[in-house]
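To whoever is on call:

I kicked off a structure prediction for a single chain this morning and the downstream step that reads the tokens threw a length-mismatch warning. I double-checked the sequence; it's 679 residues and nothing unusual in it as far as I can see. Pasting both halves so you can look.
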Amino acid sequence: MKKSHTIYSGIVSALLLTVMLNVSTLFAQEQDVRRAGVGVSLYPSVVSHSVSDFQGLPGLPTCCSEYDSGDGNGFFIGALYVMPISADFAFRGRAGLSMISADFSQIDVIGNVVRGDDSNPQVLDAESESILTADLTMLNISPGVLWYPTDIPLSVSAGFSVGLPMSTSFEQREELVHPLDTYDENGEPVRNAFDGEIEDISSLMLGFGLGAQYTLPIGSELRLIPEVEYVVGVSDVVADASWKASEMRFGISVMYEFPTPTEEPAPKPVEPKPVDPPVVDTPPIMVTLDIQYADKETPPSGARIVVEEQEVFETFPVLWQVFFDENSADVSKSRLNLLTTNEANVFNESEIVPKTLRVYSNVLNILGHRLRENSSESITLTGCNMDLRDEQGNTELSKNRAESVKNYLVSVWGIDANRIRIQSRNLPALPSSNRRPDGQAENRRVEVTFSSENIGRPVVISEIQKVSEPQLLMAVPTVSAKQGVKSVQLTLTDDAGNELENITARNANQPIPVNVPEGRTLENTQNVTFSVRATDQINNTVSASREIPVEVLTIASKRTVTNNDRVIEKFSLVLFGFDDESLTEAHKSILDEVKERITSESVVTIEGYTDRQGNLDYNRRLSLRRCNSVREYLSSALPDNNVRVTGIGNETILFDNNVPEGRMYSRTVVITIDNPVKE
């Protein structure tokens, strides 16, 4: 609407960006410790007004159809206060006077007029331009935080903006603009003209700001601070109207930093002049390196890494549900792994990658494979819909979804169609919450039920896992540099010289946490070499290294030599109902099998989880109730000790919660049984 807004913001942005990109070359010296300071700030701004279903100020007559958006200018002047709270963060507060303007315009066709003579009349659209301008003056308070990500004086700011309106004014009018000689019933080209104070102005105007600033020294204590900040409005300007104002601010502050207080040293007593020790010529930079355990004391022999093979049997309950897009019955658009006939002929469920969602992606292939092997068994496919919008009451769509699944089983897996029964309904018998998009997506599904649990049994997959112990080591460099330390770099390499890790230390002479690579990476390595490279401020460089031995314990070696091998078995229980902890018959069938695997020497862990819906505290309690339901059912088989129950809730999300199957698999309890192997 106003080209000056764009030109003004472009010029200011270019000037500030040029200063902030090039000024670091002018200040190569070490920065002082950050200090508290006070100052003044001046921020002109470009204002954008976002509206929805907004025809004008409430209570004023208008023929405007709806304003799309508005723009304007702004201005802030006030006081600034900065207080460091750590090496990387500081509190920043601003308070002052803020003024913003708003310009709205909308052209509407309001009828037609007849022009010309009686022999050649012309009917023309009559157009009216609705114009609304406003000016707001506020007391503005902006608390926030500054973050200094690097040693250069560039900081990122984030905080809130609170505006307290002090004065407001507006002008409204509608001009008849086409044809130019159109007039209202009073013979005037302007109508609905009003001005005055804005009524029902919001008592608080809230916003959230994000920006960047650069601090330039212009004296021993004075600082010049250019800044760019975008403040998005989160509250409406006027009650009962969807009108929010956001600002792109381009400003500058002048700040006085309080000097660091100095203490006069106490006078020293006069002592006899000591004899100077002999001069020892030490290197300009020296470094040593030690490797320690993170969670326990390191023995005199030094740290070591053990790669241990563990035999893991994991039970994957199958989620016998197929999910569909809204208004769709096409199973080929699902996230399932659909095979060709030739691929189905060589499918083996024991060869599925042992990951929960990979198992689920083969749910129809597992079903087809088991129906082939059990020719007397039958299934029922129940199609459902979310019973909202275009799907409301659409049981024909539900039936088509079930037919789509049936066609895949018949055409690809060769299952007799008479063994597959079709049902349809609206919402599932146990629906998810239909008030949320997540629940609606979960209700668009086909459910599979069986003539016997032989078809619906869980998938059991075994694998050999190779686990590194410990999983975390601490590299402890000790650097001495006459000119000061510039950088410390740590690398890990294997026997062949392959780089496993590369870490830049944030601070010299501080322990560096190092994640030990996974077991499969280290299984063919006898030693891992930790190397540290230190550089001082004038680029003198020195290095040090330590070799950490790697011991590989295979299952065969543990059983033959140490006889301390253990077998890990994992069981998951799904599907718990939405916001429910009760056990189903399917759960109890799995838990009966769990009971048979528990011995008096077992170490049993029971962990409960939820999906992302709901707050952390409630979901933690819900997951703990699910754990306790499982523990109570297993109580007769559990050992007196070595049982750990944890309700994790959605503090840890197990699977991708952007898809229905990921959310449903997250409503689970995972039981881990650690059993010793007896010869």
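Update from on-call: the warning came from a stale cache, not from the record. Cleared it. Sanity check on the structure: Confidence is low (pLDDT under 50) at residues 1-8, 14-32, 559-563.
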